[in-house]
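User: Predict Tat pathway signal protein's structure from this.
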Amino acid sequence: MDFTRDSSRRAFLKRSAALGVAGVATPFVTSLAAIGEAAAATATDYKAMVCIFLYGGNDYANTVAAYDQASYAAYLAARSNIALTRESLAATVLNPTAGLPGGRQYALAPTMGSLLPLFDQGKLAVTLNVGTLVQPTTKAQFQQNAVKLPPKLFSHNDQQSYFQASNPEGATSGWGGRIGDLFQSGNGASTLTCINASGNAVYLTGKSAVQYAIGTGGPIALSGGTTLYGSSTAAATLRSLMTGGSAHLLGNEHARVSKRALDTYAQVSGALASAPASGFTLFPTGNQLADQLKMVARLISVSSQLGAKRQVFFVSIGGFDLHDNLVAVQPGLIGKVADAMRAFYDTTVALGVADKVTSFTASDFGRTLQSNDDGSDHGWGSHHLVMGGAVRGRRFYGIAPQVGNGTPDDVGQGRLLPTIAVDQYAATLASWFGVGNGDLTTVLPNMGNYNASNWNLGFV
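Assistant:
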């Protein structure tokens, strides 16, 4: 399915705004989510879905590491100079409620130990070998080029986009935004359906929903808020000029959107002012991802004041493109991810909404099992984490790939051929969120390529 809009007045305005979002993270350009057709679904309860994107392509093998003797030996042989020691993994071994076939075992990286209690409590699940696909694909089909594949495999920009949008770089909507399309009219303020706490991402742009960007300190005031150059009169005059009517079509649209942006700023600022600061003390300092998730938690805490029933959030952290210095850098990065996620979950428990919030990791791609000097190269499939009170945790989902080069799961240098498509991963989350099977093929254009019995993986 092609999600490109016709060149209509509404599409022109929406796309113009979307270009602005990429350069300026202010409510003025990000409050366009209300433009567009009405949503197709409503909800009476509250649910939030939080995408945690690891930009650069996270090294899966040193995140959820092979631990059983045979698999660890193959892991060590493939990357002896960057492998984690088996001794260091002993304290973070994952003990699922049902063991994996063949006695396979995994352990979290040592710096991710803060997440181990959540796994043991059944609030964290591991999805094995997730990646971008167009349709189910075998190694033989890949080698013979016998099936359609995601374009420009192993390219950062294109695979980031394909993970987020089911289309390569240049996509005009992502699956988070397309979920937002379905629910935005059921929210008190449709503008606050898709919220990005890290800048801009195609993931949150829908066919009608456009992401609202917010800083870690709150919404960003337009032109300084209530004063301009120290003058409240000047600020009021500017507002009048920006929101007043015009004889020109684009001028009227500009005024309408500007008013909505200013009103949304006031609405969000007012709601956040009522969120108790003492309720968000669990987050670590000096952690950019934690700062973003703290803002997400604050927004969730005032969702009733904002009239929100369904919200899709996006946060991110970069630096994972580690062709070298992987051993020196990656442990700190994934440690920050783990600590931020743990603080976020514990905060949702304190807020009484843990079962209403599901968070999940995502990344461009995994990396090669084979080391590349003191790093690893661009890969394909990767392991991911899903967290929340509604998650059916303490389990692995998917098939544990064989470890090593030249295995049935390896398409070269230990690049994993995904056995779980991003579409299936996303469909499972979307179904929990309230998207019906009839809408899944709209949200996820490749779903029709998969047997309907495999759409929902059951991890939430």
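The first strand starts at residue 47 and ends at 54.
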